[in-house]
Amino acid sequence: MTVGNLRNARLIINQEAIFNNVRNAVEKTQAGTDLFVVVKADGYGHGAIQVARMAEKAGAKGFCVALLEEGLALRHAGFTEPILVLGITEPAAAAIARDQRISLTVTSDEWLTTVAAILAQQPSQAKLAIHLAMDTGMGRIGFQKPAELKQAISTLTRFDKVFEFEGLFTHFSTADSKDDTYFNYQYENFQKMMAVVKQRPKYVHVANTATSMWHQVCGANMVRYGIATYGLNPSGREITETPYPLFPAMRFEAGLIHVKKIQKGRSIGYGATYQAKDDEWIGTVPVGYADGFPRKMQGFSVLVDGHFCPVVGRVCMDQFMIRLPKRYPVDTIVTIIGQSGSNQITVDDIADQLETINYEVICGFSERLQRKYV
Ligand SMILES: *Cc1c(COP(=O)(O)O)cnc(C)c1O
C-alpha cells in the first residue's frame, strides 16, 4: 500500500501516552503476574512495532498477536520477548512458529497430533510452545469440555519432545459490562475446566483489559492487555470509572486543501445530497472512505479552530467537504480526533456516529494514512 506521506493528513501517535498507559497497568498488576501487550492488527492501527517498543520500555513482559505473521513481524524487528498467537494457526506453519519461538494457541486434539507428525519430519532442538484455549462461554474457539481439555493435555505429554505445554487460557465475553451474571457463569466453567489440570503450565491467563480492570480472577498469572494500551476504555461509555487514567494515543488531523464560497442553493458532493441554505464557506479535506473515514461520517462535525464544522455532502473515496463558519486559509488544521481550542472529538464520538465501538474505529484507518510518531 502506498502511504500518503506528502499529503496534508496524518494520524499522530503519542508514544508517551502508550508508555504511560502500559506503565500504569504494570504498576497495578499484582506481583508475579506478567503483562503481555496485545499488538494485533498493527497495534490496533497505531503501528505494532512502535507500540511494542514503548510497551517494552514500560515493563510489558511479552506480546499477543492474532496472526503468526504478526508475531514474525515482531521477531524480524528484533523483539526477543515471548509472543503468543491468539488465533488458530495452520498446521503447515507450525514449524515456522517453533523456529521463531512463537507460542501458538491450540483448540483441538487433532491439531496436536497432525502437527506432531509434521514436526517429526523437521526435527529441531526447539519445542513448539502451546497455549490451550478453553471456551467457557465466548463461543469462539477453545475446548468446551473438561474431558477434551484433559485429552489435549495428555497428547501434549505424549509428544513432549516436540511440544512445550506453556499456557492455558480463556476469554470472557462480557467483562466490559456492568452486569456480572454471565461473567460469573464463565468463571465457574473456567474453574470446572481447571479442575482436570494436574500440573499448571507456566502461564494461566483469563484477562483482557476489561477483566483486568473490573474483575478479580484467582489463579491467573498473565494479562492480555489490549485496548487500554491505546488509551481507550474497553467498555466505551458503559463503565466510565477506570482504576487509573487512560491517555488516548491517537490524534487524526488533516489540512484544508481547498476553500471556497458557494452561493445559496448550490450542492455539494456525489448525489447532490447537500444544498447550501445560504452563501457558505466550504472547505475540502484530503481524507475519504479509502482512509477509513466512512460515508456514514456525513453529518458528523470535525473541528477547525475550535469550531465544530459539519461534514456536508457525501464522503468521497479520498476527500470530504465541511461547512466553515468563515473563510479559513488553505492548510488550516482540521481535527478529526483530538483537541482543538476548548473542544475535542474522541474515538468514542466517532464510534457513536458509526454505531460501533472504539476498537473498530482505530483498526479501520487504512494503511494509506501516514502515522506520525511524537
Ligand atoms: C484481542 C484480544 C485481547 C485484547 O482485548 P482488549 O479488550 O483489547 O484488552 C485479549 N484476549 C484475546 C483472546 C483477544 O482476542
Automatic annotation (TrEMBL):
E.C. numbers: 5.1.1.1
Query: Gene3D superfamilies, from UniProt?
Result: Alanine racemase, Lyase, Ornithine Decarboxylase, Chain A, domain 1
- Which GO terms label this protein's molecular function in UniProt? alanine racemase activity; pyridoxal phosphate binding
Segments forming a coiled coil? none
The cofactor named in the record is: pyridoxal 5'-phosphate
Give the positions the UniProt entry annotates as the active site: 40, 270
- Pathway annotation: Amino-acid biosynthesis; D-alanine biosynthesis; D-alanine from L-alanine: step 1/1
Which GO biological-process labels does this protein carry? D-alanine biosynthetic process; peptidoglycan biosynthetic process
* Residue numbers bearing the N6-(pyridoxal phosphate)lysine modification: 40
Supply the PANTHER family for this chain.
ALANINE RACEMASE (PTHR30511), ALANINE RACEMASE, CATABOLIC-RELATED (PTHR30511:SF0)
Please state what the protein is called: Alanine racemase
- Could you tell me which species this protein originates from? Lentilactobacillus farraginis DSM 18382 = JCM 14108
